[in-house]
Amino acid sequence: xxxxxxxxxxxxxxxxxxxxxxxxxxxxxxxxxxxxxxxxxxxxxxxxxxxxxxxxxxxxxxxxxxxxxxxxxxxxxxxxxxxxxxxxxxxxxxxxxxxxxxxxxxxxxx
Amino acid sequence: xxxxxxxxxxxxxxxxxxxxxxxxxxxxxxxxxxxxxxxxxxxxxxxxxxxxxxxxxxxxxxxxxxxxxxxxxxxxxxxxxxxxxxxxxxxxxxxxxxxxxxxxxxxxxxxx
Lengths: 110, 112
Hints:
By secondary structure, chain A is mainly β. Chain A is built from no helices and eleven strands. In chain A, strands 2, 4, 5, 9, 10 and 11 form a six-stranded mixed sheet that branches. In chain A, a hairpin with a 4-residue loop joins β7 (62-67) and β8 (72-77). Chain B starts with a strand and ends with a strand.
């Protein structure tokens, strides 16, 4: 059973516009959620996180929203830049380990 | 460079051989994780250490897999009698008290 799902394998947006990446989870016991970005030939790098008791966390161009009743979180990037083009993984952490989604490939076109 | 390092970066082996990978975490991080990632999927949790204690192990980890962190610093992941299905990227990550994990570049294993 896949506890964390990213249903969109890819997303393409124009530079300067908003990118919205989505993630759904099934286990209500997760303590916090994270977004990681991954470039080819590198390991994932941490982007932003949110505690399960919050509904929003903002860091510069990046904002994560958490809807606990819907078991859904989203990452907003605004404005999007070509350097944001990468694979984005959603992760949920609980019981000492993180469970990752399969990623969404974001392409930001100049 | 004070990030997480992994060696080797690439390993090609024949089916049935044993392989061992090493991970050097960020020095002050007491938590260390191993993941496996295949094409088109996210990292799958394998095991987790806090200092030298192995606290969690995925049921994905068969008896052929073993991990150690003998002194609470570097860690090794050994796969015995490799199978073609073991071909994947093996990622190591470390963490201190914060939420985020810091990942190494991974070791890509190809089993022929």
